[in-house]
Design a protein that fits this description.
A: mainly alpha, two-stranded antiparallel sheet, B: alpha+beta
């Protein structure tokens, strides 16, 4: 039905000029601006990573960069990727674009607040850019005290940047929660929401509950450094381990801020491209909520060897295993969705399947780190680096890239080259696993993380990792080229090229019109009720 | 020894003579693992149990990963789209399957939790008769002292990962750690132990070495510029050799007929000065000692000071009182660590440079 409107203007063409973007209240344009910001910083963070990998080609430090530069590079890689890329990636870019469309609303609940979130994100990233110009940062992205109290680098501007970015996150979360509660189209009950909406909703809850703690912590750190009030620094009577408690009280839930939206994308990719109703809708939806809740009480597993009490360690270990179960349920449900489906191996689906491979490894290796005695050996080694990248990159980034491919035709009304898409996906898959899989082995042998030079016996494996890193660079470069190319030369698509059933596909054009829908859409259908589903002879649940 | 396949062969080449701690270039023990998929040498009583659990989780993970991937691969092949209007199943959920795939992982995770927890508790409580060792982390070396052997002190340094910790085989050792600056972490892969050394508090760990040899010691909490060189060597000795070797290596006293400057040079290497101050003019974390004596330094507060006895002594005991411009105030104090004779020796050594 939406095809009838294809000749009229869409959100991209409705108004023009720089101001029409910078001051837009349209969630779709705000989403695109986030996308540009996130991808720009992904490039920056990626370059930092390749500099690190290049230095690690040889065990001796210093044949590419000095120790001081190396420490700055891994700090900036982590800080940029976490605060400027992964956290805003799915909620800020895809979530902003999709959430109102998916629930059948004209916009988010508070469009002006939404623009403010984006501007706060921009302001926060300015502080990071300023940090780069003013002596960089060498504390690690975690800003551990008392190191960060004494570091001579631009700690204050970086922490202040992260502090500001937190507000962007909080306001976006607030906006999304109200949108989901108040603006769903008639007929869209909670059980008819696409799982992407459930995931973003759960993420938003964590964002507004956990991020203020980070804000307070970073503020305390700034107060300590500028006013010399002893809070975390033992030289002034503070407690450095208290900082770790505060920091991880935010940052562990934040790991789920980073991964839950990826779960949402994964549910959409797997269901739409296998033409099957998602298996275990309720289990997937409620497990997101369960994860959101339990994630608040597992922070101490970052501190098993920090000197926190053994009893605390045992309790946190137990709770950590508890959070593993809902995650396992999701993976099983996605695989089960493939059963008796009609699976098409297009580019978005390749990333969906790749996610199942890489994220499953990421999840399973978390079990080692949750197990107390094993963690004592693996803590702060490359095993943790590998696990974290399998979850954050193999999970969130792979899902994000899949999501960009899935919703690209909706965002721009054009299709990219499938051939190049698949070609690049192979590079990403091989490059990713080559970079990170053998880091598990490095870790089990005792290779500590954040090392500029290392024991010569690890060289071969480091070389392999570095080659994998370059393959990733090639893969992402190909993606960037064919996506940009498709904007001008891509084949025009109709409103619903995947024949999906959620509102952003069925009720509006590609690209959507400025106000999303003509009239108020009404929801009769389940978002996973595909026409191919065979209803003869079996009862529909 | 269900892990024999996964562990490296014995570290056979333990040098017989006790190494002089300041001996030039003690290399890191070269090979602790036989191949990339092996765990490091098992050299403490904890290692075998930790490795067994590691192997158990690996086996369980591998089983489930293969199961999940096999199901996925089979579905991908069997249900690939052959025609555009291919029908799909209307199945949406299954109570029994969902219960099973929630309950089975829960049960297995509980087993892992209990196993790991029991081992961890064992690691938390040192036996009463354990040998007491005090370890201090500072940028970027470790200092080790033995309350039972006053005057004995070992340390690592960034330029020469020297002998850091000596322990007897078969005797429990309790390490009590702290740090004088930022957080460091004491990690001996062969012992499977790790604990943060936190400024302002004491943390404890213990182990019982089961194998004579030399093993890597790493700092695993990022601590600044030369974090990756804050490594050292743990040497495990037969109990009957231990005391004598420790005293040979650990007592830092002026030798018979040794000049003060030579003694100062030994202190320079043994007490970590070498970590930050070069003697060949190269710029380090702190100013080089070459040509330092009698020089006039300008301070970050704008004042100037002439390098004389008093200046060096103050710099050693209250290092952050006056800081040379261009350097950060981050040197740990040596109050209580060097006596007057040793400070004098260091001064004499600096005069010769």
């Amino acid at each position: 039905m939406a095809d009838a409107h294809d000749t009229e203007s869409n959100y991209l063409t409705a108004t023009s000029g720089l101001k029409s973007w910078l001051f837009t209240l349209d969630h779709k344009r705000i989403g695109l601006m986030y996308l540009v910001g996130v991808l720009t910083f992904f490039l920056v963070g990626g370059i930092f990573a390749l500099v690190l990998r290049t230095e690690l080609l040889t065990p001796e430090g210093g044949d590419f960069i000095s120790a001081v530069t190396y420490n700055k590079m891994f700090t900036l890689h982590g800080a940029v990727m976490v605060f400027l890329v992964i956290i805003p990636s799915v909620p800020g870019a895809l979530g902003n674009f999709l959430l109102p469309l998916m629930v059948g609303a004209k916009d988010v609940a508070f469009p002006r607040l939404n623009l403010l979130s984006f501007w706060i994100y921009t302001l926060g990233s300015m502080f990071f850019l300023f940090t780069l110009a003013a002596g960089q940062l060498d504390t690690g992205w975690t800003f551990y005290t008392p190191y960060s109290n004494t570091s001579g680098t631009a700690v204050i501007s970086a922490t202040f940047g992260a502090f500001i970015l937190g507000f962007s996150s909080i306001l976006t979360g607030l906006n999304f929660i109200v949108t989901v509660h108040k603006m769903r189209a008639p007929g869209m009950t909670w059980n008819k929401m696409p799982l992407m909406v459930w995931a973003i909703y759960s993420t938003s809850v964590i964002q507004i509950l956990a991020t203020p703690v980070l804000a307070i912590t970073l503020l305390l750190l700034i107060v300590e450094r500028t006013l010399m009030v002893g809070i975390f620094d033992p030289a002034m009577g503070g407690d450095p381990v208290l900082y770790q408690h505060f920091f991880w009280f935010y940052s562990h839930p934040a790991v789920y801020i980073m991964i839950l939206p990826g779960f949402g994308i994964e549910s959409e990719l797997i269901a739409v491209h296998s033409r099957k109703h998602i298996f275990g809708y309720k289990a997937i939806a409620l497990s997101s909520v369960a994860i959101a809740i339990i994630s608040f009480v597992v922070w101490g597993h970052h501190m098993f060897v920090s000197g926190q009490s053994e009893i605390a360690g045992i309790v946190f270990s137990f709770l950590t295993f508890a959070v593993a179960v809902p995650t396992a349920i999701k993976v099983f449900s996605w695989v089960a969705t493939l059963y008796k489906g009609s699976i098409e191996f297009n580019t978005p689906m390749l990333y969906g399947l790749m996610f199942l491979f890489t994220f499953t490894i990421g999840g399973l290796t978390g079990i080692f780190l949750g197990a107390l005695s094993v963690d004592v050996h693996l803590h702060d080694t490359y095993f943790v680096v590998a696990h974290f990248h399998y979850v954050m990159m193999g999970g969130t980034i792979i899902a994000f890239v899949g999501g960009i491919h899935h919703w690209w035709p909706k965002m721009f009304g054009v299709m990219y080259s499938e051939k190049w898409g698949k070609f690049a996906a192979v590079f990403i898959f091989v490059g990713f696993n080559m970079t990170f899989f053998n880091q598990f082995l490095l870790g089990q042998q005792g290779m500590p993380r954040r090392y500029w030079s290392y024991v010569p016996q690890f060289q071969q494996q480091h070389v392999l990792s570095t080659i994998g890193g370059y393959l990733l660079l090639i893969g992402f470069t190909i993606i960037a080229i064919y996506l940009v190319h498709s904007l001008r030369n891509g084949k025009k698509v109709g409103s619903n090229p995947w024949n999906a059933q959620s509102l952003e596909w069925t009720h509006t054009a590609s690209p959507p019109i400025e106000h999303n829908f003509h009239g108020q859409p009404r929801v009769e259908n389940d978002p996973y009720n595909f026409p191919e589903i065979d209803r003869t002879g079996s009862a529909h649940h | 020894m269900i892990l024999s396949l996964f562990t490296a062969p014995e570290n056979a080449d333990a040098p017989a003579a006790a190494a002089e701690a300041a001996a030039p270039s003690v290399p890191l023990p070269p090979v602790e693992t036989a191949h990339p998929w092996a765990m490091p040498t098992q050299a403490s009583t904890f290692a075998e149990s930790t490795d067994n659990l590691y192997l158990f989780i690996t086996a369980l993970d591998a089983f489930f990963f293969i199961l999940i991937m096999a199901a996925m691969g089979y579905f991908m092949w069997k249900y690939r789209r052959r025609s555009k209007d291919q029908k799909t199943s209307s199945i949406t959920h299954s109570g029994i399957i969902e219960f099973l795939w929630s309950a089975i992982p829960t049960a297995l995770l509980l087993v892992i939790f209990v196993w790991a927890e029991c081992d961890y508790v064992k690691q938390s409580v040192a036996p009463a008769d354990a040998l007491d060792v005090r370890i201090t982390g500072q940028k970027w070396y470790w200092t080790v002292e033995y309350p039972k052997y006053p005057g004995v002190s070992l340390s690592s340094s960034t330029e020469e990962p020297a002998l850091t910790l000596m322990v007897p085989k078969g005797k429990p050792v309790k390490v009590t750690m702290t740090s004088t600056d930022v957080i460091h972490s004491f990690y001996v892969p062969a012992f499977r132990i790790k604990k943060d050394a936190v400024p302002g508090r004491y943390t404890q760990a213990w182990f019982e070495a089961t194998r004579v040899g030399e093993f890597n010691l790493f700092c695993t909490e990022y601590c600044g510029d030369f974090h990756s060189q804050m490594t050292g060597v743990v040497k495990v000795l037969e109990p009957e050799d231990f005391e004598a070797a420790l005293k040979r290596a650990g007592v830092l006293e002026k030798g018979e007929g040794e000049s003060m400057a030579d003694y100062g040079q030994r202190i320079y290497k043994r007490r970590g000065c070498v970590a930050c101050h070069s003697v060949d003019g190269k710029d380090g974390t702190g100013p080089t000692w070459q040509g330092l004596w009698d020089k006039t330094e300008s301070m970050i507060d704008g004042s100037t000071a002439k390098v004389d006895d008093q200046y060096i002594k103050t710099s050693i005991l209250e290092p952050n009182k006056q800081v040379v411009s261009g350097y950060a105030p981050q040197m740990p104090s040596y109050q209580g660590q060097l006596d007057d004779e040793q400070i004098t020796a260091v001064i004499e050594y600096i005069k010769t440079l």
